[in-house]
Amino acid sequence: MHVPSILVVDDEPMISGMLEKVLKRKHYNVKIADSGKLALESLHDGEFDLVITDVYLPDYNGMEILRKAKQADPSTGVIVITAHSSVESAVEAMKVGAYDYLTKGFSLDEIELTVEKFFKYQRLVKENELLRSELGSRYGIENIIGNSPEMQNVFEIVEMVAPSNATVLIQGASGTGKELIAKALHQKSHRRDRPLVKTNCAAIPEGLVESELFGHEKGAFTGALRTTKGRFEMADGGTLLLDEISEITPNLQAKLLRVLQEKEFERVGNPESVRVDVRIIATTNSEVPDEIAKGNFREDLYYRLNVVPIHLPSLKERREDIPLLVEHFFEKYTAENKRSIDGIEQSALDQLMQYDWPGNVRELENTVERAVVICRDKHIGPQHIYFGSNGRKFVAAGKRPPSDNPNDLQSEATTLRAMEKQLILKTLSEENNNRTRSAKKLGISVRTLRNKLQEYRREDDRDEP
């Protein structure tokens, strides 16, 4: 465990001795320097989390100690103390980077509290930096999987465009990863420290879209009990992600166009304009030119949004990425579900490669998760692969269809829960209803097996006429 180290710089033995005693009592590592020269030597030779320095020293001004400490390590905190307090010196110290400024005559409780507050502040700063680093790692392009030429082209565009303020339109079928690309654009931009606000245009009731985007005043409509900021104001300084932009109404499209052009809007119920600095990233799974031809989408808004277009290919268009994605999801869900599965058989991977994936990466992820959950063997094989939301088997050309044996997992098992039930009942049948052996084979406790069977009996009782 790291014990914070503090350098105390003061030429008065009584002050430095008192500070040393108080700080050591709180289990800090403390070093005393009775001159500016010794303080600078100490800063050169060692690292300190905090420096407490007098302003007036025999050989140096404490402001110089402050500057040198911050130059050596910007994260080092500095508390300045002096017997001659003035507003000017306090302001100067804070401008140079002091954490706090105390006048001699401070109480022991005051110095203890100030030091404690600094280290609490320092911990929060480090935690914030770690969180930002994790966010950057999670949404960095290097962690969006794809070695295919199509995805490498997408990554190249993201790297070029992210630092700019240009509006981006991400187009692609559902499940291709549009939101991941939007988050990577934000995380790699200079706006990363400001909010990324997401709005699913298709999920907001038509009558509330304008209020959601632009906000409203108290009393603007029935139920408007207080003034509320919209998504544009919430994203000020950051990025606004307009998901499924093609779903907004023509009337709202005109208002959105104005915001893009003039960087201002009015809240519902207030004629005063509100100015914002927001970068727009929009996504759609529709062919917008087709919607324009049908009269459903404004052409001028499309050109405003489509400054930088990014097209995400379907999984069918980049089959060479399937093994990488399968490996990623396999590792993710074996860890999450605490499963000991050695790998995936080549025959199962061949099935995954042959399927056309209408649900794209999202469907592939669901399929791998389902296989991990139901597999009770050392490897995932073709018998564990079920495709689509209805959990049906996929039969490639020339392949044998699924077995009609009632002991096999049936294609009629349309949900993960139904397949789990079939697997449990099948295992009990194989083990002659011996629950201990069945639970061991299934990799669950006897208690869990008993609870599952009770659930199934209750469900069967409810289904009886």
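The above is record 1. Record 2 follows with the same two-line structure.
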Amino acid sequence: MAESTVTAHIGSTNFQVLLDDGKHTWLADEPESKGGGDRGPDPVTLLMSSLGACTSITLKMYAQHKGWALADVRVAITMESGEQGATFDRRIVLEGDLSDEQRERLLQIANACPVHKILTNTISIRTGLTVA
């Protein structure tokens, strides 16, 4: 059963995609160098931003639940891809009055964010056509 649905619609504007989840709308696009209008992040950047957002939120929620003094979280994501697949490099900066043990636990918790779990497990994509 699907947790949520996101629709993607591309019209006459080259490579600009309107994304909609029923509550929010946002754009994806390609840079001008690839024929797009650069009006939004490209699809790979959106994927990386999902991992960064999920990591940040998961760490903040966990620290709040524990009553830890986590003041700020910054996550930088880069990705390399090739014939063998993709590797995400996630660098996390934690600010606040945290012990070494709390910092180590938060590093472990980062790997428990839902997007991290999705990306590190087997992924399959079922694709079908629907007549308009």
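The CA atoms of residues 55 and 88 lie 13 Å apart.
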